[in-house]
Design goal:
Blueprint: H1 3-29, H2 37-41, H3 45-76, H4 86-96, H5 102-116, H6 123-153, H7 160-165
Helix pairs in contact: 1-3, 1-6, 3-4, 3-5, 3-6, 4-5, 5-6
Amino acid sequence: MTKEQAMLLSSLEACRQRIEKLRYSMQKNAALFPLTPAVLASLSDAQEESVDALILRYSQCVSMMQEQVFRGIAYLEQEDITDKSNRDKTLLMEKLGAIKSAEDFGTAAMLRNKFSHHYPEETIDRLERLNLVMDEANFVVACFSEINDYLTRKGLISDANTIAAGAPHLTNTL
């Protein structure tokens, strides 16, 4: 196994762990969504922390996919992305077939950016953004599955179920 293969394997496993935590946060917070102004104003401290954990895990998953997993795939596909923007990397992943929609992934990344930069906002803007996170989190989970399917089809990992059920394994065909 090359250093690059090992790095992709490590990135996939780390992302899988974050995806599992994201799924947990989605399930834990599902009853709160869609948020209304009244529900938002009446969240307990524990509920606010739980929603914050959902946002953090969502943001981590998007970042890990974009910055680590996409880079690993590009390298193994012998694509030079050293001077590429995140948008260009996402378009490349769509072109390769690793994800279905660069535009949808771009939307997920934009929402992540809005959360991470804490843009000043009115309550209604915050409410709309928070309500988007649940749908976008579902998209991110599905996107990770698409990436696993792609890596399996390409023979870059041995079995799609290994990532969903545990640690991924690279095949020896590389």
